[in-house]
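Subgroup meeting minutes
Present: P.N., E.W., G.H.
Scribe: E.W.

1. P.N. recapped why we're keeping a running log of single-chain structure predictions: easier to compare across weeks, and new members can see raw inputs and outputs side by side.
2. G.H. added today's entry (434 aa).
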Amino acid sequence: MSRKDTSPFEIKLDAVVGGGQTIGTHPDGRKVFVWGGLPGETVTVQPTKIRSRLIEGHVIAVADPSPERVEPSDPDSYLSTSPWQIMSFPAEQHYKSCLIEEAFELHDIVLPNPIVTYSDDNIYGYRNKMEYSFWWDNDTAKLSLAFFKRGSHNKIAVSGTSIGSPAIEQAAKNLVGVLNARQAAGFDLKTAILRSTSQGDVVMQLYVKTTEFGHFSDDEFSQLGIAGFELIYSDPRSPASKISERLQSLGDTTLMDKILNVPFYYAAESFFQVNLPVYEKALTDMGQWVPAGKKVLDLYSGVGSIGLTIGGDDCTLVEINESAVREMKRNIKQLGVKASAVLSPSEAVVDTITGDETIIVDPPRAGLHKDLVESLRDKKPTRIIYLSCNPVTQARDVALLCADDTYGIAYHQGYNFFPRTPHIEHLVVLEAKN
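Output recorded in log:
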């Protein structure tokens, strides 16, 4: 099979792998990573990327369905947003626990307890943030919502998605109605970000490619049925939701949610957890490992939702994103708590670690910076609480921290923050050994 040959082919699938795809073997020996298939199935694969050693693609037909297979809620678009809609939820929970186990086994770490992935069983309508693109239909001369097809720059028109909150889904449909009523041109539009609070209040940002885009009238804003709206110019050469200039603001564009009864204020574009009930469970579990009366250093802290809920009375929060720190400082002021916000890369504060603090880390998918790992091994704080969105890099970091019997794993727990997707959060608590 050459790199130019994109003809479909049939294979049998073997196992789910770390990225969320299912793997099989092409007749020529190359490994095939596919979306839309389950272990044990015989499927027809449409290649999307062909390389010398592997092939990527998606399933277009299933000859021998797995008993774990279910009909997806979004049959036309699930691959774009939540590609695990094709499996039963018990199967999803099982595979997520297996992927955590495999990540640690790669580093010869056997987790001390059976791996459990917590879920509140709310598997649809849970996301409090969605980002939509737009599709222009030449036949009807109308706009619709769209997602990008997985693995390509092409789009697929949608009416919505089952994983978004009902309030977001309704507001997104209202937006399309307003844009079509004013006969907005598709080439002027970039993306729309919608966020909803637990109370159902929605703030919307519409990103456009020209500063000449017409402002929304009060009547159009009313038709959106939302709490706040921003019209934002985003340079066409920049990423989809990059803010170049704020053109218009209507209503209240600040959102507020309570996490463990602590109020947090944040903007629509901010990093903020998308599944608050499961996040609160993770925070409750983490909080049991934060000793009272001891300093806490919260690294990679975002807007401060960990440190300001479970960090106690003496917490320092470190974050590299300037807008997140700005919101963190506002939250500290609103709460009237004793906490310090530091704008800095987390690895740049290693000299301030004394070893007397409780360390909390919640890094991006790349995991901990190597300088931070070295400093933690050198200063050896008694306890490190490590929440991760990527068990693979977390396992790597834990292996380095536990080398030479420096630390041991006192607790671990998985969390299904993103049902119907392969994404997993995993908590590990490390205790220093004498």
